[in-house]
Amino acid sequence: MSITHATIVGAGVAGLTTALSFAAKGISSDIIEQAPQLGEVGAGLQLSPNATRVLSALGVLPDIEKHWLEPRTIRLASGRDLKSLANLPAGSFARERWGAPYGVLHRSTLQQALLRAVLNQPLCKLHLGRRIDGVGAEALAHVTGRRPDLVVGADGAWSVARDAVPDSPTVSFSGNIAWRFTVSSAAAPGFLSRSGVTAHLGPRAHLVSYPLNEIDGFNLVAIAAGTRSDEGWALQADATRRAMLLDQFAGWHRDIRTVLADADNPTFWPLYQASEGRWQNGSDTVLIGDAAHAMMPFSAQGAAMAIEDAFSLAHHLSKDALPPALARFEMERKARAARVKARGDFNRFAYHARGPFRIGRDIVLSLRAPESLAADLDWLYGHRIGD
Asked: Which of 33, 96, 110, 226 has the most CB atoms within 10 Å of its CB?
């Protein structure tokens, strides 16, 4: 065992999963969070088998499964005429093929399940409402009362822990905006699938929708490229931003435009992404999740990559001394994140295709059997930490 105690900066999905992963290896941790209470901004979340496999190993999945929904299919459809382009089976198929389930859930369901597990774990101690002055081990010891062997920066895209890692990534606006909102089942239009995840595709934009058991409704995320950004994060969509949204979806099917126009309190999310850079300082600090590799949501892998990072870091720390463990973690996870990002870039091109590229995309998708589509995802959904 390379360390006995760590301080984790950030109590989001990445930080809480790290604390539980460390505890599974006998490593204690302090988790520092500046917010006075934990709450997830946003609504829906997709958890693919590569993430749920980790949550199962940590004993958290049964708590989540009480609330979530396992979609029967993941479908691609046209935003212009609503016709199906391709279907990937999920549900029992996902469990059988990838050895773990695919689920959709409210973000707070995941957050609260992780929180309950952390609060019930004697090796984990949570410090809420605590701002920090620097992320060095000595500075953090003043907050927790204990000097850590390792500092884990799990504090998101706007990480302060990056300051302790020379040549760490920087974040920049991606040119993409997400509008997020929910629709009740009673008000939901007929084109929204009650049993699956659907991505409606169109020129320079797409709309993802899926049901949420927890709210008896649907989560919708409309993503458009080539838009401008305000400074800020999760802003309310005022009249100007609503007009921008409808402009991006001009020419789409009237039912989709209607649900966008009638959206109740949508939030406006400028999407940021991380550059290349170092994830660890070679001695006592490491970055994980969005702090290391914030990426676009075109593969629905943001939470999954943070969950994988946490479990992988604990695995390497249990196998080697600290400096080589950090180096191996960084090398392995950089390669994995780069491949996921490349898949997301491909999806962005395919989802937002125009003109002849759109026609070619539709023809290719119509010729792909579900088994062939599933095989393309084996490397992603079938991934196992430590194999």
From this structure: 110
